[in-house]
TrEMBL record:
Family membership noted in the UniProt record: Belongs to the CoaE family.
Keyword hit for Nucleotide-binding: yes
Reaction equation(s) it catalyzes: 3'-dephospho-CoA + ATP = ADP + CoA + H(+)
Gene Ontology MF annotations: kinase activity
Binding positions (ATP): 12-17
UniProt enzyme class: transferase
Pathway per the UniProt entry: Cofactor biosynthesis; coenzyme A biosynthesis; CoA from (R)-pantothenate: step 5/5
Name of one Pfam family that matches: CoaE
InterPro entries attached to this UniProt entry: Depp_CoAkinase, P-loop_NTPase
Name by which UniProt lists this protein: Dephospho-CoA kinase
Record keywords: ATP-binding, Coenzyme A biosynthesis, Cytoplasm, Kinase, Nucleotide-binding, Transferase
Keyword Cytoplasm carried by entry: yes
Biological source species: Lentibacillus halophilus
EC number: 2.7.1.24
Length: 199
């Protein structure tokens, strides 16, 4: 029996940081952000839809999608963000479930689905347990601006495009408080895996 865990949080709350820690326990992680990059490569159905909708100005010289350009458009316009979601999400879900099923068939004890929009997209039926990586908003804002070089306005546009992380925490089976050090988060995760008898 494989336990499927949904790992989520909000932008820059530390999902990738925590998801890397699962490696230490040999637990496979399927990353929706990574899949969302694969499914918009030239030749994919979503690529054609995106170029048709947003125009060639979102393309780089090598014809791949300029993610900074597309991000600036969709995080400033809720309807456009929803439009992009409708083009990208079906293919991401299909690939994610394929990969999850491979892990289940191989007899993994646990598989983690790292899905930023797990609650917003109502995907909790894909998983047995949910874990939210939580940070206070001012920590999130600072880490986001520092990591990606966004202005405060750009960072807030991205934060406000998602459900507040405090609301996600209230919905979760478990919360990892990532306000402190990465080591402190690792210890919380280890204790959680022990309490769920995964390790
Ligand atoms: C808008 C895009 C081009 C920006 O690309 P960029 O490389 O700058 O960001 P990246 O994809 O690494 O996402 C970073 C974070 O932004 C947040 N985010 C991404 N897309 C969305 C979205 N549509 N709505 C809300 N938050 C989002 C997530 O927290 C994600 O972890 C890209 O995020 C995208 O194609 N988004 C649509 C697909 C999607 O929803 N991906 C997220 C989960 S599948
Ligand atoms: N406990 C921590 N202490 C200090 N910095 C941290 C901590 N956790 C994460 N960070 C840093 O904060 C930034 C955001 O973390 P991370 O990339 O893991 O977030 P994310 O939730 O995966 O983001 P996204 O939603 O954009 O994919 C990164 O620069 C990361 O190194």
């Amino acid at each position: 029996m494989t336990l499927t865990v949904g790992l989520t949080g909000s932008i820059a709350s530390g999902k990738s940081t925590v998801s890397l820690m699962f490696d230490d326990f040999g637990i496979p992680v399927i990353d929706a952000d990574k899949l969302s990059r694969d499914v918009v490569m030239p030749g994919e159905k979503a690529y054609d839809q995106i170029v048709e909708t947003f125009g060639e100005r979102i393309l780089r010289k090598d014809q791949t999608i300029n993610r900074d350009e597309l991000g600036a458009i969709v995080f400033a316009d809720e309807e456009k963000r929803q439009q992009l979601n409708r083009m990208v999400h079906p293919a991401v879900r299909e690939k994610m479930l394929e990969k999850r099923d491979v892990e289940i068939a191989s007899g993994a004890t646990c598989v983690v689905l790292d899905i930023p929009l797990l609650f917003e997209s109502k995907l909790t039926h894909y998983v047995d347990k949910t874990v939210v990586v939580y940070v206070d908003e001012h920590v999130q804002l600072n880490r986001l601006m520092e990591r990606d070089g966004y202005s405060e306005k750009e960072a807030y546009q991205r934060i406000h495009s998602q459900m507040p992380v405090s609301e996600k925490a209230a919905l979760a089976d478990a919360v990892i408080d990532n306000n402190k050090t990465k080591q402190a988060s690792f210890e919380q995760m280890e204790a959680l895996l022990q309490s769920w008898e995964i390790i």
